[in-house]
UniProtKB/TrEMBL annotation:
Keywords: Acyltransferase, Transferase. The lineage of its organism: Bacteria, Pseudomonadati, Bacteroidota, Chitinophagia, Chitinophagales. GO terms for molecular function: citrate synthase activity. The keyword Acyltransferase applies. This is citrate synthase (unknown stereospecificity). It comes from Filimonas effusa.
Length: 444
């Protein structure tokens, strides 16, 4: 039995008992009011979910179990050969268990993931059956679905299991899936862009380092970037599209492969995770239109105005919850200053940062004019030669697995219910406004 599962069992049992008591005493306490506008506008600001792994503050940004990104960069274990960036395995441990891991905990987790990382041949055959022009996110999700044959949870459920034991089987799937994703992502990358010349995993490397290695990158600072990237993209509390979709589908007791694939289909949307590809595409198009590698701030401003005038969003800017510069953007900016301060593409990202917020602010309707995580990531990747921007969201997805699958373990361990909010028709809303109907659902 792996130590991490025993620790999770103990933590989840204690939390479950505490929540039961809390609900017994306070379950009928109102938590807020909902306006009609919120119902029509993406439920923004409605508290309706519990997610233990991280919490987002509109001003400060994300905290994972209470720790900010700079704190994690300081406190999480690093790669042994002089690494400076946190190992994402450590973040996974923190999100799952709720405590900072020791170096030994992370070492153990790395070896557990390595041991579970085998991907069956039919998954590769499934990827190979897709036409080469398939988007990498479609290949990635298709491979995850093909891997569903391996679900312990689905097998156990078909045989018949006690509700109390759901999480035990789900946990196995979550660990297996996280272990296998770097291999799948690297396979997609090399099939689509590197002549299908695949690279075997290196049993001595950490989870993110191995991903870099299997993709064919050998620069140690790219390994460091992957460790940082996989850490900062992992979780963003529960209401974002990928986390919410995973949670929602998992609430029907669809196994973790099915639930995670649903989350990844959401991540593939341009207003969510696909924005990282859109950002770099937009910058490349701008450079081409202006005929320069390093557009001036005035040129950028004009290009932004043109983008807005054509009815498009400026990718990488704005956020549904955040109201300041995303600390994930700042962490990447720090990385850029340290490793590639003179790179013209990275400098362009910084010049855009000085130009766009003022313009968006002047529109008067954009609630957050500041950059999000996706505004920066692509430029760092291009620096190391990873220019195939359609692949970027796959990297985001590998990282996001850590948060949403840790959360799924919590969902089942806490016995959370199938998600099923009430919806209404506009017809009913009009009747309600006219005093002819009630609108609330059964709250019991
Ligand atoms: C990992 C992530 O998912 S981070 C987000 C990645 N997505 C992007 O970067 C895409 C660009 N940004 C956006 O489209 C939005 O800011 C979102 C989707 C992130 C948030 O959406 P919302 O919460 O609805 O934003 P908000 O309440 O500020 O929107 C109000 C108006 O401002 C517009 N707006 C918001 N951001 C931008 C932007 N970057 N460029 C232009 N207009 C924008 C909205 O489209 C909306 O316009 P409308 O009233 O004409 O429909
Ligand atoms: O929180 C959100 O809605 C989007 C986001 O930044 C993420 O999921 O990382």
């Amino acid at each position: 039995m792996e130590i991490i599962k025993d620790r999770f069992r103990a933590k989840a049992a204690a939390a479950s008992a505490e929540i039961k008591e809390m609900l017994k005493e306070h379950g009928s306490k109102p938590i807020g009011e909902v306006t009609l506008a919120q119902v029509y506008q993406g439920m923004r600001g409605i508290t309706g979910l519990v997610t233990e792994t991280s919490l987002l503050d509109a001003q400060e940004g994300i905290r994972f179990r209470g720790y900010s990104i700079p704190e994690l960069q300081q406190k999480l274990p690093k790669a042994q050969n002089g690494g400076n960036e946190p190992l994402p395995e450590g973040l996974f441990y923190l999100m799952l268990i709720g405590e900072l891991p020791t170096d030994a905990d992370v070492d153990h987790l790395t070896s557990v993931l390595m041991r579970r990382s085998h991907v069956p041949k039919h998954v590769f055959d499934t990827i190979n059956a897709l036409p080469l022009n398939t988007h990498p996110m479609t290949m990635f999700v298709t491979a995850i679905m093909a891997l569903q044959t391996e679900s312990h949870f689905a097998r156990a459920y078909a045989k018949g299991i006690n509700k109390k034991d759901y999480w035990e089987h789900l946990f196995e799937d979550a660990m297996d899936l996280i272990a296998r994703l770097p291999r799948i992502a690297a396979y997609v990358y090399r099939r689509k862009y590197k002549n299908a010349e695949h690279i075997q995993p290196d049993g001595l490397l950490d989870w993110a380092g191995n991903l870099a290695h299997m993709m064919g990158y050998e620069d140690p600072s790219f390994y460091e970037l992957m460790r940082l990237y996989m850490t900062i993209h992992a979780d963003h509390e529960g209401g974002n599209v990928s986390a919410h979709a995973t949670h929602l589908v998992g609430s029907a007791l669809s196994d973790p492969y099915l639930a995670f694939a649903a989350g990844m289909n959401g991540l593939a949307g341009p207003l969510h995770g696909l924005a990282n590809q859109e950002v770099i595409k937009w910058i490349f198009e701008m450079r081409e239109a202006l005929g320069t590698e390093l557009p001036s701030k005035e040129q950028i401003a004009t290009y932004v105005q043109d983008t807005l005038a054509s009815g498009k969003v400026v990718p990488g800017y704005g956020h549904a919850v955040l109201r300041k510069t995303d600390p994930r953007f700042s962490a990447q900016m720090e990385f850029g200053k340290k490793h590639m301060p003179d790179d013209p593409l990275v400098q362009t990202v910084w010049n855009i940062y000085e130009t766009v917020p003022g313009i968006l602010q002047s529109l008067g309707k954009v609630k957050n004019p500041w950059p999000n995580v996706d505004a920066h990531s692509g430029a760092l990747l291009v620096h190391y030669g990873l220019v195939e921007y359609e692949f970027y969201t796959v990297l985001f997805g590998v990282s996001r697995a850590l948060g949403v699958l840790a959360s799924l373990c919590w969902d089942r361990a806490l016995g959370l219910a199938i998600e099923r909010p009430k919806s209404v028709t506009t017809e009913l809303v009009k009747d309600w406004l006219g005093g002819k109907a009630e609108i609330w659902g059964d709250t019991q």
